[in-house]
Amino acid sequence: MSLLSAVIPCFNEEESLPLFLSEFDNVCSRMKESWPNLSFEVVLVDDGSTDDTLSIMKNAAGNSSYGFSIRWISFSRNFGKEAALYAGLQHAKGDYVATMDADMQDPPSLLPQMYEILDTEDFDNVATRRKDRKGEPPIRSWFARQFYNLINHISKADIVDGARDFRLMKRPVVDAILTMSEYNRFSKGIFGWVGFKTKWISYENVDRVAGNSKWSFLKLFVYALDGIVAFSTTPLTIASLLGILLCFIALFMVIFIIVRTLTFGDPVAGWPSLICIVTFIGGVQLLSVGILGQYLAKTYLETKHRPIYIVRMSGESSNE
Ligand code: UDP
Ligand code: MG
Fold it and tell me: In the chain, which end has fewer C-beta atoms inside a 10 angstrom radius, N or C?
């Protein structure tokens, strides 16, 4: 017998969750026909929802008609999707673990195909990416592409453009991810950093079934910066290099001015250019201090060793 767990982070998903559960149930019964030795578990993580998500979870756990068991965890407040994923992975018991969204943007119908790959081929991990960025505002796509270009240049973690957090992993991969107990969690980087043999499959992007995405442009932008700080120290190097470069430029200008004064005398001129230079250098200094501050802030948060999430309630279904 092997067990497949699906980890579902949920934040205000009262509309999507019931649809997801019934779709997942269909997929389970189909998969049980092909692989009679497979059983299923759903780990629902309520990330401090303010709507009826929690009671839907509790009811689902009490509903014995599903072909899978349910384990649910409810946070004391909203800790974010990354924390919810971590909690879900910690509580999942499966030999195979899938991470997927509640809004059906990660179609459960792909699971049989993903499981088949892990079952028959030499892979540890099946990951998904969207085929293209259709239906997304062009400016957002542009920023996204720049971000992926940049982070892959400056980081060792393999972070794939358009990668979704929808994955099916074997147990060793899950255990590896759980050893990364950092407070600032950037899942896309963590998945890439642990390595293992990963097969990528792509699918057409689907819109969420109900509700709204919780991502605004600003949130995405800050998330991208967090990702860079979490998985690369290159910005620090750039700040240092910029400093060295400016020192050389200054040295060159000093020599230039000395030679010019000796040759042509010292007519008082150049105040506007002086102001430009002072402003420029002030800007570069602030930028560098800012970069330094970002890393210091993350270090500060990490050294506090705060828990990644706090559980308010949890439970599981009695049916198997
Ligand atoms: N989510 C969460 N905590 C949050 C925000 C989102 O657990 O603070 C969950 C959400 O319920 C969904 C998944 O993370 O299952 C993806 O969220 P969303 O659909 O808003 O993101 P998108 O698909 O637009 O990237
Ligand atoms: Mg979504």
Answer: N
